Amino acid sequence: MKLKDKVAVITGAGSGLGRAIALRFAQEGARIVIAELNEAGAEETLKQVHAKGTEAFAVTTDVSDTQSVSRLFKAIDDRGWPVDIIVNNAGNAGNLTPLHEVTDEQWHSVVEVHLSGTFYCSREAIKRMLVQGRGGAVINLGSVAGLRGLPGGASYTAAKGAIIAFTKGVAQEYASLGIRVNAIAPGWVETPILENLPDEMRPMMTTMTPLGRIGKPEEVAAVALFLASDESSYVIGQTISPNGGMHT
Ligand SMILES: NC(=O)c1ccc[n+]([C@@H]2O[C@H](COP(=O)([O-])OP(=O)(O)OC[C@H]3O[C@@H](n4cnc5c(N)ncnc54)[C@H](O)[C@@H]3O)[C@@H](O)[C@H]2O)c1
Q1: Is any atom of ligand 1 closer than 6 Å to the C-beta of 41?
Q2: In-domain check, residue 17
């Protein structure tokens, strides 16, 4: 049990990668907090996590809203649970609008969820880790888009690139205090987020991937487990990219 006695807060855990990470962490003994906007998705994850025999609860949260994030962490405090691990995973696919047609609203809706959400949740989690004095792990979801750029979706690419830079900087602030901050930058992974992209893009996803297939959520959850556990005790400020061999 690699996460015994740990509490992990996972944003966007009602679907895809967040759910897979919640289930993998639960299997390793962690208590799970599901911070999710979609209540039905959160309920389903909660059911599956409970089936693993671990304690968990869900808090309806919009990570792009600082007050909603404050309420999430208050709910954790009210339960008397510590925060050992935060996985900043909540996100949306944004849009593939060419940059010259992107509206201010489209831009902000992507940047607020991905980048500001990562900031709000990291800030609250790190505050608690500092008081607890037993270190912690912050895991931010970037994307290959943030490493190599992808045409279309400038707001998504920019937000993911910024999350990777945020990870590097914040990692250096807290390394000496035992709080390790790292990022995961997945390639194409089979989750509902891909349903928001045009079907014509699917052949391109496999062509871009030397392994010749789209990834599975469990293959990203395995990387998250590594970064959350003591196995990665000397890994700080890094971005690991499970991407089937894609050049980044
Ligand atoms: N699947 C991929 O190919 C892929 C590749 C690279 C990066 N990512 C990143 O991985 C993360 C998870 O994506 P996924 O593929 O599991 O997608 P998904 O759509 O299956 O899950 C995303 C979850 O985030 C939740 N969410 C969205 N906005 C939210 C908000 N404001 N507050 C709280 N929750 C919110 C959604 O309700 C959903 O449950 C995202 O950050 C995404 O950008 C995914």
Answers
A1: yes
A2: yes
Residues 100-155 have pLDDT tens digits of 999 999 999 999 999 999 999 999 999 999 999 999 999 999 999 999 998 889 99
In the chain, the largest separation of any two C-alpha atoms, in whole Å, equals 50
User: CA 173, CA 168: separation in Å to the nearest integer?
Assistant: 9
CATH code at 134? Answer: 3.40.50.720
What atom of ligand 1 comes closest to residue 64's alpha carbon? 31
Domain that holds residue 140: 7-240
Is the CB of 118 within 6 Å of ligand 1?
Answer: no
- Report the range of poorest mean pLDDT among 13-27, 67-81, 94-108, 217-231: 94-108
Distance CA 121, CA 117 (A): 6
Residue 156 a catalytic site member: yes
| Strands 136-141 and 85-88, bridge-based pairing | parallel
Residue 85 lies in a domain: yes
Residue 132 Cα to ligand 1 middle (Å)? 29
Is 39 contained in some domain? yes
How many structural domains are present in the chain?
Answer: 1
Q: Closest Cα partner for 216 from 240, 186, 195? A: 186
CB of 159 closer than 6 angstroms to any ligand 1 atom: no
User: 9, 10, 17: which to mutate for ligand 1, most atoms within 8 A of CB?
Assistant: 17
Query: 21 is written with which tokens?
Result: 């990470």
Is 30 inside a domain boundary? yes
